[in-house]
UniProtKB/TrEMBL annotation:
This is Glycosyltransferase 2-like domain-containing protein. Residues 2-167 form the Glycosyltransferase 2-like domain. Belongs to the glycosyltransferase 2 family. InterPro entries: DPM1-like (IPR039528), Glyco_trans_2-like (IPR001173), Nucleotide-diphossugar_trans (IPR029044). Keywords: Glycosyltransferase, Transferase. GO terms for molecular function: dolichyl-phosphate beta-D-mannosyltransferase activity. It holds the Pfam family Glycos_transf_2. It comes from Candidatus Woesebacteria bacterium RIFOXYB1_FULL_38_16.
Amino acid sequence: MIPTYNEIENIDKLLSDLSLRQKKSKKHKIEVLIVDDNSPDGTGEVVKQYQNKNKWIYLLTGKKKGLGSAMIRGYKYALGQLKPDVIVTNEADFAFDFKHLNYMLGSLEKGNDVVVGSRHVGVGKTSGWTVSRRLNHWVANTIFATWVAGVGEVYDHNGAFRAIRVKGVLDKINFDLLKTKGFAFFFYFLYETAKVTNKFDEFPVIYRFRQRGESKVSFNIKYIKTYIRDVFEYMSLAIKIRFEKTKKWLT
């Protein structure tokens, strides 16, 4: 499952790459769900072209309400319509390499329920980030997700590259109660999955800054307003989680 917005320069290569992996896969049946927020650049149209020849590619479109909203919409559709055993999520810009897919599925077969590609274990790292973006990530990942919220199942709370078992994990989560709109979804969702399982696996990956297409980061008024909303949501959820954990500990 991959969320997209204005990924016209990546979507063709992405689907070509996934097509090769799907054809080579003998052990696992792979289906791809693209969750597109009505991209004005034609991303959805490219997906439709691939759908004509590949029945295992699905497209879910909707109004742009934020990354978190897209993820929730995608999970609900996948669980309700596609009935998978596992849902793997990733980004469309090749920030995380799909070559790790076999490891992730193998880890689930060994008994883990949540497998997370991490920039903060082993040889994992980020490549191509500016100092300001590294600082922004450190504040969100370390100060708020780890120190304030106390989410400690993994070290990388905000990466999109994950594989999660459906039975006993995703099917136990009420997605109608999840209201996160922005990037806070990823760390908050770890908190939700930790309520139903403690079988987490974290393995090192290298996060590479996009080579094609434009970064979603900009300095126009609309983006700044959305960014402020998402930051406030992130901090609020971190405090909410800490409160819930403290309340549970006291009782």
